[in-house]
Write a structure and sequence with these properties.
By secondary structure, the chain is mainly β. It has 2 helices and 24 strands. A 5-stranded mixed sheet has the order 18-15-16-22-23, with no helix packed on it. The protein has a 4-stranded mixed sheet with strand order 19-24-20-21. The protein has a 3-stranded antiparallel sheet with strand order 1-2-3, with no helix packed on it. The two termini are 49 Å apart.
Length: 507
Amino acid sequence: AIAAGDAHSCVLLSSGAVQCWGAGGNGRLGSGNENSRGDEAGEMGASLPNVDLGAGRTAKAISVGAAHTCVIRDLNDVVCWGVGATGRLGTGVEDDIGDGAGEMGAALTAVPLGSGRTAVAMSAGATHTCAVLDNNTVKCWGGGANGRLGTGNQNDRGDQPDELGDNLAAINLAASRTARAVVAGVAHTCVVLDTWALKCFGLGSSGRLGSGSTSTLGDGANEMGDNLTSVHLGTDRRVMSLTEPGRAGAPTGTAGDGSVALTWAAPASDGGSAITDYVVEYSTDDTTWSTFVDGTSALTSATVTGLANATTYRFRVTARNDVADGVVTTASATVTPAAPTTTTTTLAPTTTTTITATPTTTLAPTTTTLAPTTTTTTLAPPPAARSLVLRPFAPLATTLSSTQRRQVAAFAATLTANDNITCVGGAGSGPVRLLRDLARSRANAVCALLARRVPGVRTVVGVAVSGKVQVAERVSTPAEAVSQQVLPALVVNRDLSRRVLVVAQPG
């Protein structure tokens, strides 16, 4: 990661170390002096020291203000150094930190965030700093001019003892609303809500708050919460670019009969939110990719079924968390499924020698003819998989219409308690992350309704972004009723935009 202030820059290295260069005034480089770095030969590279964050401590995130620097350490706490005026460092005083010996490392004081609270995201503005906490609330400290702290007044916070921690209330964003991300500017602050809406407060000049006026917001009573309107980003538009997981390792595959067993390495970073699923795709031409719908799993392995033997495939994987999808992996080496080899063994013929003894008593031969008995057992074929494609949902809607409910009710009448139900939401074209989340919500709603109508069914939810849709179908073979094998159910060329595909398979 990299961050730049007014006159200095900092990087977060892959080792978790932090290095800064540029203007050193007020200790913003965290070097223990005010010397600038990078303006003379021999000051960079191996000569550039790591910032002392404390014995054994590393950084997870970094943000740079006009003249101060903050990091989230591996303890999920926040420490800052540089200019201390207005309380932007969150130390309870206005002293500069990092410009003298003995001020860094063990001397750094974590910003009080509240009892038991830690930070998951953080942003340093010109004279204030904000953090998203682990309970998805936002707190800001430092210069309060123009309402940039969202406290309903213009008071500075963090420049006096006992102003932070539990004494600093979380920003009121709206009733029952939480935060996903925060960014602090020169004199204003913007927050992405859990609804993906965007709200800004602080200095309003030049329209920087996106409110349709130049009024300052957040510096007076009744300007925050539900009274603070969201920025109008366009019809049905939301902020989506947040913290996504990193790129997983390229998958490797082992060929099977119509299948390939894949394994891959988890990404080095989950983006601050646990990996919830891996999207597996396959292609025969490196151009058109199909998604293998295998439900939701955080395992770093999968067996892709329904492939054609003697056909060459490549595979790729995308890590997913609750926020977004990561970057897709590089494609695997080619893998070609093949039918198992049949081995024929020829046995030598058996020679039988018969010894005949002369009988002392001759009995009349008795001939008994038994009518041959033929027993034919006919096994009933397994029930066929059934499918349903719902009528399209209205744009952005996730609640079933009365027509869709009637479709689901009629389909539920064909189900039994042991059936396996797969609901696949079609994303369609447009902003991928928004449409993917809508598709998943719609599929969840359909499967939940079927589960209520037919208790005992097992449900799996998936999302189809593009290409073909493949669902693993489990059926019994007539030859061996007690064994199970997995056969593919492939849905080709369906327009699933704003629709949900439901596949029912016998248990």
